[in-house]
Amino acid sequence: MVSSENFDNYMKAIGVGFANGSTFKMTEIKFKLNKQFDETTSDDRKTKTVMTLETNLGWQRDEAMAKVAVVTGSNKGIGLAIVRALCKQFEGDVYLTSRDTTRGEEAVKSLNSEGLKPKFYQLDINDLNSIIKAAAFFKDKGGVDILINNAGIAFTAADTTPFADQAEVTLQINFFATRDMLTHFMPLIKPGGRVARFRSEDITEEELVGLMKRFVEKTKSGQHKDDGWPETAYGVSKTGLTTLSMILARRLSKERPQDKILLNACCPGWVRTDMAGDKAPKSPDEGAVTPVYLALLPPGATEPHGRFVSEKEVQAW
């Protein structure tokens, strides 16, 4: 194989130009190669050289790909504020995602008016096919450096929807759909990547999923209080997600220790959003501070990992 330090000279020798993010046609490369070989060069030597180039082109192209940050549910509120902050501080492509294309594109335009250049990708985390399609898209981009799972739902205190229905919808989106996101995107997280999730280590993922399902079932029969569950579907979903973050962080440490990926759960605080109301003390930009801090932890950092973070400080859990 041609060494990386000699690759540029090797490419020049056969007259193949390299452009950042180019799609290479091996037929063109083979044609250029044949012009460089003399009549005594064996077909076997030509084949091996082309195979070597294919391997090195793959390596070179991966290295040239831009870094990627993905923020779910980011067309408004804290998610939009996170995208804004990342566009200012992250050296790479920042993807604003939204289930509604029109709202997502309008959010991108609003940031464009501020001189920022996020990219848009339509993603509905409550649609497994949408997640799978997105995973394939970002795999083609070379993977993901930063993933912030911001998408979620909360019913207001004044909402008259039966509690059992609130519980089912809230847990489906805030816990199960986000778990699907993590299942399909964790393999795409690059070495040194960062994962933040808006909210005991001995519990397994399967046991946790069982507990979340049990809560939903108990609300349908009105027995959730008798079993010690609180009267807040949102709180249960976030507790479940924080615990899931601990489990997945432990798994990363075991299965990919050399990649130094940091995964944490965080709380933005009480923020003025559609879900939290206008009486909250924090602006969306202030609420974005902790998740952005976790997303931009410096290369080589080993902590925090598998922790619950609020106000940029690790909290007891």
Biggest sheet, strands in spatial order?
3-2-1-4-5-6-7-8
CATH fold annotation of the largest domain: Rossmann fold
- Can you write the helix and strand succession as a string? HHHEHEHEHEHEHHEHHEE
Whole-number mean pLDDT: 82
Total domains: 2
How would you describe the shape? globular
Share of helix, binned = 40-55%
Sheet with the most strands?
Answer: 8 strands, mixed
Number of helices: 11
Distance between the termini: 50 Å
Strand content: 5-15%
What does this structure look like?
The protein is an alpha/beta fold. It has two domains: 4-63, no CATH class; 67-315, 3-Layer(aba) Sandwich (Rossmann fold), CATH 3.40.50.720. Helices cover 49% and strands 13% of the residues. The protein contains eleven helices and eight strands. It has helices at 4-14, 26-36, 43-64, 77-89, 101-112, 128-140, 163-185, 205-221, 233-255, 284-287, 289-295, and strands spanning 68-71, 93-98, 119-122, 144-149, 189-198, 262-267, 308-310, 313-315. The chain has an eight-stranded mixed beta sheet with strand order 3-2-1-4-5-6-7-8, sandwiched between helices. Helix 6 packs parallel to helix 7, helix 7 (163-185) runs parallel beside helix 9 (233-255) and helix 8 packs antiparallel against helix 9 (233-255). The longest helix is centred in the middle third of the chain and has 23 residues, at 163-185. Mean pLDDT is 82; it is low at 1-5, 14-28 and 59-63.
